[in-house]
């Protein structure tokens, strides 16, 4: 069963077997292993994944560039690195979807103006990801508040002044 990055980062103990999926934020390679930061959108921070050469699927690591979607199986272990408590030591890695060399999201920051031009990728950025998570929590709180007070949530039809196919006759004006 897949575990979210958020839950892995707040884990109280090491775990022998985890599976996660998400998008590559960054990747650094050395001769014997690769470091990959993986994020699934469940929180701002990503989790570091260590992929040793020889790990099943490691032959595809060169295609796992920023923005690629991957699945990782492995173990959650304490991280010797600073600034992080946990990392995943991969036992298997799979490239789910690669990205072209000109993929618009890169490690650098992007302006809101630029992000407006790639609306389908905005949720993968910290700015929009945080905004969407906050919006989700606020909408949930509002709906819960009214639901607990026995209100019914309905989607009413949009009433417009457009006069298409005689619809304007539905609301006649009374002139005085």
Structure notes:
This protein has 176 residues and is of the alpha+beta class. Helices cover 19% and strands 28% of the residues. It has a 5-stranded mixed barrel. It has helices at residues 5-9, 112-116, 126-148; strands spanning 15-29, 33-39, 47-52, 69-78, 86-97. It has 2 domains: 5-103, Nucleic acid-binding proteins (OB fold (Dihydrolipoamide Acetyltransferase, E2P)); 104-151, no CATH class. The longest helix is centred in the last third of the chain and has 23 residues, at 126-148. Strand 4 and strand 5 form a beta hairpin.
Instruction: Please give the domain count.
Output: 2
The CATH topology of the largest domain comes to: OB fold (Dihydrolipoamide Acetyltransferase, E2P)
Q: Helix- and strand-based class?
A: alpha+beta
Roughly how much helix do the residues carry, as a percent range? 10-25%
CATH H-level name of the largest domain... which superfamily?
A: Nucleic acid-binding proteins
Unreliable spans: none
Rg over C-alpha atoms, rounded to the nearest angstrom: 23 Å
- Name the shape in a single word: elongated
- The appropriate CATH architecture of the largest domain is Beta Barrel
Percent of residues in beta strands?
A: 25-35%
Mean pLDDT, as a whole number? 87
What strand line-up does the widest sheet have? 1-2-3-5-4
Largest sheet: number of strands, sense, barrel closure = 5 strands, mixed, barrel
Distance between the termini: 69 Å
How many beta-strand segments? 5
Provide the CATH top-level class of the largest domain: Mainly Beta
Q: How many DSSP H or I helices? A: 3
Quaternary state, please? Answer: single chain
